[in-house]
TrEMBL record:
Name of the protein: Uncharacterized protein
Domain of life, source organism: Bacteria
Length: 141
């Protein structure tokens, strides 16, 4: 299994030292996520994925479960669609993308959750506390 975290670059270190109350340079504050969630257009499927993740036991979900939430099948589809949503949120929250050796859409999910690749091609995601709180404040969950 591959456990992905951001790779700290000089720019990321500078960013994280400027904003010391972030838990990581690619992880926003609750206010960042609330602002982003209120400013982007989200489809009902995107909202359903966020709700399913936030309400999952332990806030843990897989790409396959995300796909099933929106009526699709397969971890690639679930991870890709969730990653595209995460990219929109990260851009609106002005968060730097997590530096990793995975695809851009998977790297974007790290702004919403910590992830670990399973033995298959699927990923196991645990939503950040800041995102859960922001979803509550934005009245999405």
């Amino acid at each position: 299994m591959q456990n992905m975290t951001h790779r700290e670059t000089p720019g990321a270190r500078a960013y994280s030292t400027q904003i010391t109350h972030r838990t990581g340079p690619h992880i926003g504050r609750v206010e960042d996520y609330v602002r982003a969630l209120r400013s982007i257009d989200m489809s009902s499927c995107e909202r359903d994925m966020l709700r399913a993740h936030a309400k999952a036991p332990g806030r843990e979900i897989t790409g396959n479960q995300l796909a099933n939430t929106i009526g699709h099948f397969g971890s690639r589809i679930g991870n890709r669609k969730y990653g595209k949503l995460a990219q929109k949120i990260a851009l609106a929250a002005e968060l730097p993308m997590c530096k990793s050796d995975v695809s851009d859409y998977l790297a974007a999910v790290f702004t919403l959750a910590d992830g670990e690749q399973q033995n298959s091609e699927d990923w196991h995601w645990v939503m950040h506390d800041e995102v859960v709180e922001a979803l509550k404040k934005a009245r999405i969950v």
